[in-house]
Amino acid sequence: MVEMSVAGIALDAASRTPIVLLRDPSGRRQVPIWIDQTQAHNIMAGLQGTEQPRPLSHDLMAALLVAGGLELERVIVHAIEDSTFHAVLKLRQTDPLEQADEENTVLHDVDARPSDAIALAVRTGSSIWMLEEVVAEASIAVDAEADARDQSDFNRFVDDLSPAALVKHLRHRHQGQDPGPDSPDQG
Fold first, then answer.
1. Reported pTM
2. What's the CA gap between 31 and 26, in Å, rounded?
3. Bridge pairing between strands 70-81 and 127-130
């Protein structure tokens, strides 16, 4: 199994559907999982630790785990079938009146959608694991150096951008002439 981390939320360029990106520890592979807008919001709220005026569903789930004496030990994304990922919540329940040891601990496996499992994991600080077979089948290579260059180029573009240059850039783009960030007519 491979411990994964949430690299972020992206949008599919074609469908504008949100994607949660899970990254392996080496940073060389990412697994994209298509999710809906609500799940993207729930995951982002958990990642940002944003206080909501009322608890979101996953905040409620985390509170119910605590009230029920359960701990989310980890999330495991264990299969991909017909482009659908499958996950399980590994819950630990210890009898509060007994000394916490293997004998007094009950483990529960609860089937879950990966998006729900990830949203709950980010709220509880639980680890997210994926079977190596799933990572191998669904991952895309990540070029961290290229990503850093793209981010640097974008930051430079934004830093050097004036309101007049932005208007000019948008006009050219609207007319089908994309001058790009390094165009001499920026300025």
1. 0.71
2. 13
3. parallel
